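Hey,

Quick one before I head out. I ran the complex with flavin-adenine dinucleotide overnight. Inputs first:
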Amino acid sequence: MSEEKLDVIVVGGGPAGAIAAYLLAEAGLETVLFERGNTCGSKNVTGGRIYTHSLARVFPDFALTAPLERPVSREAVSFITADKLVTVDLDNPAWGATADHSYTVRRVSLDGWLADRAEAAGAMIINGIRVDDLIMENGAVCGVIAGGDEMRSNAVIIAEGVNPMLARRAGLLSGDLNPAQTAVGVKMVVSMESKEIESRFHLRPGEGMAQLLVGDCSKGVPGGGFIYTNKESVALGIIFTIAELVKSGVSVPDAIESFRAHPGIAPLLSGGKAIEYSAHLVPEGGWSMKPRLYGDGVLVAGDTAGFVLNCGYMVRGIDLAITSGRLAAETVIGAKSIENFSAAALAAYEQKVLDSHIGLDLKTFEKVPRFLEDTPAMFSAYPALAADLLTDLFTARGGKPERIRSLAARHIGKAGWLRLIRDGLKGVRAL
Ligand SMILES: Cc1cc2nc3c(=O)[nH]c(=O)nc-3n(C[C@H](O)[C@H](O)[C@H](O)COP(=O)(O)OP(=O)(O)OC[C@H]3O[C@@H](n4cnc5c(N)ncnc54)[C@H](O)[C@@H]3O)c2cc1C
C-alpha cells in the first residue's frame, strides 16, 4: 500500500461510511474506504425500510436512481398474542405517489449503489479487507492497519457498525457492549410474485407496506416483530433485547418459525419460499449509549455512535447513519481547509450532530428505551388485554349485552388497574 498520507480513511461500507466517502471525494479529498465484506452491503442487515429525507439531501434524484423496493403507503402497528392480532392500519395513497416518506429496501442493493456513487466521485473502495487496527501516535489516530499493511491519513472516520472495536481502540469509549442496550435482530426473506404481494397485503401496484408488531412474536422478551414488502419478496423478523433474551431462555429459531406460522401471518406467506436468513446486532440504548464522537484525527458515525432510534412504532438507523456520515464528512472537509485535524478542529462535529435531526430525534425519545425495558407488560399482558377486550366487544351472545364500561373495567381489572395507570404515566412521560 501507498507510503504517502491520504486525506481520509473511512472504515466500513454501510450507509454512514459510503455517504461520508462520497461527499469527501466530491469535495476533492483523497479518500479510501475499507469494507471487510466482499462487497459493500454483503454483511449488512436491515428490516427494512429507509426514511428517505437524509438520502434526498445528498442525492435529490434518489427516487429515480437508487435501487429502492416499494414506497411505503400502508403503515400498520399490531399487538400480537399467540393466536390474535390487534392492528392499527393507515393506508395513505399520498405516500405511494411522492418520494418524501419511506421505501422498503434491500441492503445489498442500497449499500452497493452508495459505494458505486462514492467510487464514481473519486473515492477508492477496497472490499474484502478488514481494518485490524488504528495507527496511534501520542493519542492521535494517524491511519489504519489493514491486510498486514499500514496506510496513513490525516483523519479516519470510523463507521464500523454496532460493534465499536476500533472506536474503543481510539479511546472514544470503554467497556463491552451493554446487553441491556443492545438487541439482536433475526430476519427471514420469503420470495413471492409481485402481484401476489399486492393482493395479499391490499396494496396498489408498486406500493408497499411496513408493519411493526409487539407481543407474542418476541415471546414476552422486550423487542418486537416486523414485516416489510419488497418488490418480489416479503421480509419478516424479530428484534430481542439481549439481556432479557438470555434470561428468558427463548429459542430464537423457534420464535421466528412460530411467528411465521402465526394464524394471522401464515396466510400472507403461504407458498412463498424462504430465500434468505440473517441476524445482526442493533444498538438500542439511544442517546445514553453515545460514545465520545471525535478525537485527534478521528470521528465516529452511524451505529458505531449508537445512532439508532426505536420508539416502538418506528425503527430508524439508516437515515441517522446517512446524516452522521454527511456531518462527519463536512467536518473533515472544514478541517482540511485549515489543515488542522486535531480534536479541537473536529469538535464541530458534535455540535452539528446535536443541531441535526439526530440530536433532536434521540433527545426527544431519550426515555423510550428505558420505558420499554421497564414495562414487561407491553410484551405480554397488554397485547392480551387488547385482544381479549376487543374479542368480547365484537361478540354477540344473544343475551343481555355487557355495557362497554363494565366490559373494559373487567378486562383492565384482570391486567391490573394500578399497573396500567403507572405504565400509562411512564409511557406519556417517555413519549
Ligand atoms: C434486524 C434489523 C432491522 C433493522 N431495521 C431497520 C429499518 O427498517 N430501518 C432503519 O432505518 N434501520 C434499521 N435497522 C438499523 C440499521 O440497519 C442500522 O442502523 C444501519 O445499518 C447503520 O448503518 P452503519 O453504516 O452505521 O453500519 P452498518 O450498516 O452496520 O455498516 C458497517 C460496515 O462496516 C463494515 N466493517 C465493520 N468493521 C470493519 C472493519 N474493521 N474493517 C472494514 N469494514 C468493517 C461492516 O462489514 C459493514 O459493512 C435495523 C437493524 C437490524 C439489525
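The pocket of flavin-adenine dinucleotide is lined by residues 11-17, 34-37, 43-50, 130-131, 159-161, 166, 185, 187, 237, 239, 280, 282, 302-303, 308, 315-319, 321 (CB under 6 Å).

Talk tomorrow,
K.
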